[in-house]
Structure to design on (588 residues):
């Protein structure tokens, strides 16, 4: 399998604080890849670096064979990297449908003039994009919520809406930032099934960050474990789960309190 | 067979035009007509500011700066052609072109200001736009060729009710159509959450510059109409306080609601005139030390009351039915 995302020697400092230290990893195409680690271990920073919110101090990020290090966020998205956020960032006053439609149509083919004059080409595009957005909502079981204001949705549905919105950009790589945060066990189960289905149906590579060990162990095919900005283990779940350094980071030192 | 939708906006504008024409026959005097005209100019200014402040959510405090550019540019052009031949009727096409030229000049200034400043957010952007608005005004105050502090005098009175109404209609229709399109939704997404907008692929900076230019264009046209209504372009007409006045209209009407801006432009223009007359009368009758300008106190109070008790303004982000273009499958 070839790597869809390849990070080499990536480091990032916030002033004097080294948030990410000399990262190397490859996310294989079509995989569900998990990045775990305690709070403050540099997980979200890694996502912010990949999506262009921060520029890495050192290192290189390659996506689908091209260098995206330090590119503008919207350009990285247009190349095929989409993400969700740990603290939901939805377009609250817009309808559920429009949240997805925006992502489907971030660069409308119709010009401002064509939109103003409501030319047939404009109308055709609007129709098409709306239908596509509705299909996505359907897959994520949000179709009956399409007209509601997004901010009125319950938490679990907002998480799904963020995934729908990310998928609308036609990504090759989907980054999920703590998708199971704040969910009850039943919702976590459903989410695991959903992520698997999304991967198969949309042919995306999933790269997720999570605290929830069971979730990651049950879902991911490959896992990387971070602690204080450094990689302490990487591999398939069965092996990583038995790694002494991982146990130490999560459960504390043997004999120590 | 497809039945075309009723263009309600056009119907309402035509209705308004007809009503005013009828009222003219039964004693709707020039002063009342002036108020109607002024209201329509403010409709243009408020709706175009709402595009910037409300729809894409960039807090601009320098709208009158753009209006000043439009006023001075169009005013200079028409004064020049009017001097060459004072036949008013023959100059209407030239007047329209001059207004557009004023709008384009304002848009260029908008882009020039937009590029360096639109990286700023919230309060910072507000302060910088305020500064730029004042800079523009001060520049005109110091150019002798356009009258300097005396203002540009002798602008022909080309702004008739019909012309102003037509431009107000175009402004509202264009901005409404853009707001209700994929571009408009992208703008609203930027307002709602800029980072998320960036991360669904929207070129946020590009949109902000475009919207700034478009808002400035219409402000420039509005400024041009204003100058040709008052027959003067004077630096004091475009001061910060008037930018605030337009801003209050946007907030009173509801940020993000074009309907609200239109209603508030009328309501507050009329209120201003009523207050001015009332205060002058009060001064004459009671000898109190107040002047016509005290209406600004009422304006400021109004703003405070809106912020305290009805933050979302008159309309919130809602629109009147005639301002909404139904989606294809909802007809």
């Amino acid at each position: 399998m070839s790597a869809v995302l390849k990070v080499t020697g990536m480091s990032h400092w916030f002033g004097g604080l080294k948030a990410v230290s000399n990262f190397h990893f490859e996310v294989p195409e079509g995989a569900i890849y998990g990045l775990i680690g305690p709070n403050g271990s540099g997980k979200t920073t890694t996502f912010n670096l990949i999506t262009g919110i921060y520029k890495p101090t050192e290192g290189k990020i390659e996506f689908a064979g091209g260098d995206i290090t330090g590119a503008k966020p919207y350009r990285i998205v247009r190349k095929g990297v989409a993400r969700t956020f740990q603290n939901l960032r939805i377009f609250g006053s817009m309808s559920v449908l429009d949240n997805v439609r925006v992502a489907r149509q971030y660069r409308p083919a119709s010009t401002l003039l064509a939109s103003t004059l409501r030319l047939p080409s404009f109308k055709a595009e609007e129709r098409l994009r709306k239908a596509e957005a509705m299909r996505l909502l359907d897959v994520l079981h949000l179709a009956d919520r399409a007209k509601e204001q997004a901010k009125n949705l319950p938490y679990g549905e907002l998480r799904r809406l963020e995934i729908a919105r990310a998928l609308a950009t036609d990504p090759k790589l989907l980054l999920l930032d703590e998708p199971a945060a704040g969910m009850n066990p039943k919702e976590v189960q459903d989410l695991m099934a959903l992520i698997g289905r999304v991967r198969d149906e949309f042919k995306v590579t999933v790269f997720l960050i999570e605290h929830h060990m069971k979730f990651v162990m049950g879902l991911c095919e490959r896992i990387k474990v971070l602690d204080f900005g450094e990689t302490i283990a990487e591999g398939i779940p069965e092996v990583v789960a038995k790694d002494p350094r991982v146990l130490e980071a999560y459960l504390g030192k043997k004999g120590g309190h | 067979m497809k039945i075309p939708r009723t263009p309600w906006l056009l119907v309402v504008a035509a209705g308004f035009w007809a009503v005013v024409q009828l009222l003219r026959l039964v004693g709707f005097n020039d002063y009342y007509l002036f108020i109607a005209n002024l209201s329509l100019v403010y409709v243009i200014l408020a709706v175009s500011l709402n595009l910037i402040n409300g729809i894409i959510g960039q807090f601009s405090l320098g709208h009158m700066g753009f209006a000043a550019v439009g006023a001075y540019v169009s005013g200079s052009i028409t004064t020049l052609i009017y001097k060459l031949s004072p036949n008013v009727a023959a100059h209407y096409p030239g007047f329209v072109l001059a207004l557009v030229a004023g709008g384009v000049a304002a848009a260029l200034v908008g882009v020039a200001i937009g590029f360096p400043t639109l990286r700023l957010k919230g309060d910072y952007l507000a302060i910088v736009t305020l500064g730029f608005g004042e800079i523009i005004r001060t520049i005109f105050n110091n150019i002798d060729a356009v009258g300097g502090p005396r203002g540009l005098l002798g602008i022909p009175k080309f702004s008739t009710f019909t012309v102003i109404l037509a431009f107000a209609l175009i402004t509202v229709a264009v901005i409404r159509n853009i707001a209700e399109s994929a571009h408009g939704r992208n703008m609203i997404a930027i307002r709602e959450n800029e980072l998320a907008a960036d991360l669904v692929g929207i070129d946020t900076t590009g949109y902000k510059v475009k919207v700034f230019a478009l808002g400035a264009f219409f402000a420039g046209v509005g400024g041009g109409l204003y100058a040709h209504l008052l027959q003067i372009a004077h630096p004091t007409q475009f001061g910060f306080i008037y930018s605030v006045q337009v801003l209050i209209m946007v907030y009173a009407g509801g940020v993000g609601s074009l309907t609200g801006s239109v209603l508030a432009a009328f309501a507050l223009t009329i209120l201003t005139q009523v207050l001015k007359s009332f205060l002058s009368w009060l001064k004459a009758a009671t000898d109190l030390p107040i002047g016509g300008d005290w209406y600004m106190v009422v304006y400021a109070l109004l703003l405070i009351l809106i912020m305290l008790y009805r933050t979302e303004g008159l309309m919130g982000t809602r629109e009147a039915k005639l301002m909404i273009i139904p989606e294809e499958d909802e007809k």
Notes: Chain A has ten helices and ten strands. Chain A touches chain B through 42 residues (CB under 8 Å).
